[in-house]
Amino acid sequence: MGPVTRQLPRWRPFSRLQVILQHLIQNMSKHTDSSAEVLLEKRGCAGVITMNRPKALNALNLSMIRQIYPRLKTWEKDPETFLIIIKGTGGKAFCAGGDIRAITEAGRVGDRLAQDFFREEYMLNNAIGTCRKLYVALIDGITMGGGVGLSVHGHFRVATEKTLFAMPETAIGLFPDVGGGYFLPRLSGKIGYFLALTGFRLKGRDLQKAGIATHFIESEKLPALEEDLIALKSPSKENVADVLNTYHMKCKIDEEKQFVLDEHMDKINSLFSANTMEEIIQNLKQDGCPFALKQLEVINKMSPTSLKMTLRQLREGASMNLQDVLTMEYRLSQACMHGHDFYEGVRAVLIDKDQVPKWKPATLEEVTDEFVGSCFKSLGNSDLKL
């Protein structure tokens, strides 16, 4: 026993030094990490994910996905973590979407990124949708595309008066992915189909009225809300809901305002319930009211291929589970990477900004059911596996 006791005093200061050094390194990394694209911290009962690319409106890129996914999985297993909070920095956006430019450049030259990005993004969407820990997304500011995928599948989505939601993919030759085929057809009536095909933007309290957000609070109250959530001791879903409900009930902004689509819901439900895009167009033309004609004008600018793909995606996704939807969407993403319209849409909307994409095929009639069907076919060994 002698040698062991003699060693003890020598080890004690070393372990104390180790603790101090570790603490210093953690603190230093907290300061120097402010330049990191995503910040991942454990605070109180919560794991906190902060998207930190404010200049790029917190657009999601592959390196961010590769940092968030493993940490989410670690926190899910950690008995000391009860809650995951996700937010964005900069005050303008939660997350304005995926890093479309990088994907476009990769897709043009056949780079692996065009496969890896979608594969790993959808795996992250699924991890959020199946997360065993409570997941709270603070969707303050612009929340589109990839940002919707980071929030909508979680337990709680908190919108503010600054929130701007859209799934504008049909305008760039894509489709409302990140599990859009799962959550959009499950919104009330045909509102999900309407949002998917037109890219219509919802703001503030309207997100909650549409069923996309679970709560609505003032943007300036978010830091206080976050502190109250972090301070909870071993919270249950009820405890977290109680905190969110308290803030929600106190928020008076736009309390009396009618839902932006309220007066149009009957029209949306009837006009967008058709089985084909051609029928939807026909419905809008025949109706002829200002709202219908406005939607017709919007839809006529979208990629005909994307419109047909999206309608089928939502109709099939309505009866699928999230995993099957994401597997289907991965197939569609790769069809878009091998097609024409995605690159043309990105050019027209994001690069040259002339807003005049030349779609191929240029009309709905030219997009055959056979072609659309081929986009849904299994990729064999390359399929997404969840």
Automatic annotation (TrEMBL):
Name of one Pfam family that matches: ECH_2
Reactions accelerated catalytically: 3-hydroxy-2-methylpropanoyl-CoA + H2O = 3-hydroxy-2-methylpropanoate + CoA + H(+)
CDD domains: crotonase-like
Chief site of localization: mitochondrion
EC number per UniProt: 3.1.2.4
Pathway: Amino-acid degradation; L-valine degradation
Entry's Gene Ontology BP terms: L-valine catabolic process
GO cellular component: mitochondrion
Protein keywords: Branched-chain amino acid catabolism, Hydrolase, Mitochondrion
Cell location: Mitochondrion
Keyword Transmembrane helix attached: no
EC top class named in words: hydrolase
Function: Hydrolyzes 3-hydroxyisobutyryl-CoA (HIBYL-CoA), a saline catabolite. Has high activity toward isobutyryl-CoA. Could be an isobutyryl-CoA dehydrogenase that functions in valine catabolism. Also hydrolyzes 3-hydroxypropanoyl-CoA.
Similarity comment: family membership: Belongs to the enoyl-CoA hydratase/isomerase family.
Descriptive protein name: 3-hydroxyisobutyryl-CoA hydrolase
Annotated source species: Pelodiscus sinensis (Chinese softshell turtle)
Gene: HIBCH
